[in-house]
Design a protein that fits this description.
Helix content: 40-55%
CATH architecture: 3-Layer(aba) Sandwich
CATH superfamily: SGNH hydrolase
Number of domains: 1
Strand content: 5-15%
CATH class: Alpha Beta
């Protein structure tokens, strides 16, 4: 889950100079995966698990699989996302998922539930770092999905949470999608009644945010 942001909270999107430098480094790094045998594991929470949608095929992960099949017929997409998942939960099950699926690329989308619970950013950072190390140890590439929360727990917490993703991407030299909900986070009509989860019509916007990094990772 992820709290929606209104126009008064746009400050969360504005990175500091240090964060902007880390973000630039992360954006410049793109993993390379052979398209002929690409097996992509999406490892996330409800935002990737099609929560609240009438059909899982409406979710951005399913839309990503469809687009990949059109351009890279041999690519596979496996969705191992679980609604309510936390970074700690992800760390506890990543090894099993890697052993089961043996992906060549992992799209990592976790942290929103940690933020909603006010988990210290240092703990979330350590958990995500552990997940990334496990993925890298398996020789799979990583695309990290950035998330943001409004300052319900204070402006500093929201800023630290936002900056955690480019910091991790820079530290481990993995590709970064800066913000999963970029471009529509303020549009109330694109969220379900809980105000947290995007509706079916918003899933294509999420796909467009993720697609450039996935496409860039595909190598003929």
């Amino acid at each position: 889950m992820l709290l929606r942001m209104n126009s008064s909270l746009r400050f969360v999107w504005r990175a500091s100079a240090a964060c902007a430098a880390m973000l630039l480094l992360a954006l410049l790094f793109t993993p390379a995966v052979l398209a002929a045998d690409a097996k992509i594991l999406v490892f996330g929470d409800s935002l990737a698990a099609a929560y609240g949608l009438n059909n899982p095929q409406q979710g951005w992960v399913a839309l990503l699989a469809q687009r990949l099949k059109e351009k890279y017929p041999h690519a596979q997409v496996i969705n191992a996302s679980i609604s309510g998942e936390t970074t700690r939960g992800g760390l506890s099950r990543i090894d099993a998922e890697l052993a089961r699926h043996r992906p060549t690329l992992v799209i990592l989308e976790l942290g929103a539930n940690d933020g909603l619970r006010g988990l210290p950013v240092a703990q979330a950072h350590a958990n995500l770092a552990g997940v990334i190390r496990a993925i890298r140890k398996s020789n799979a590439a990583v695309i990290l999905i950035g998330l943001q929360i409004p300052p319900n727990y204070g402006i500093e917490y929201a800023r630290e949470f936002r900056d955690m993703y480019p910091r991790l991407a820079s530290q481990y030299k993995v590709a970064l999608v800066p913000f999963l909900l970029d471009g529509f986070a303020e549009q109330r009509d694109l969220f379900q009644t809980d105000g947290l989860h995007p509706v079916a019509a918003a899933q294509v916007h999420i796909l467009e945010n993720v697609w450039p990094k996935v496409n860039a990772a595909m190598k003929p």
